Amino acid sequence: MVKYLLVFCSLLFFILIHWVLPAVSGRRQWWPPRGTVKVKCPYKKVDLSWFTGTVNPCPGLYQPICGTNFVTYENPCILCIESLKSRGKIRFQNDGKC
To answer: How many CA within 13 A on the CB side of residue 17?
Structure first.
């Protein structure tokens, strides 16, 4: 029974990643234009304004990036999360520190 549950959960995860998220995310931009890690951030369709915590989806990666709020973020992943939390008000400004 547990084996079937794991297969079912894996299938649902695959469907979510490949079909549902691209459909709701709309037009996305690569942040930053240059660099080792680039993120496509779906800032227009995804609303994370309810999320008040902090998260580091790319742990151990230091690639400073400047947001339009003139805050230097540790990496593009964190900037994307902050953009989603602000409903797209915070975006990519430039590579490196502000």
So the answer is: 6
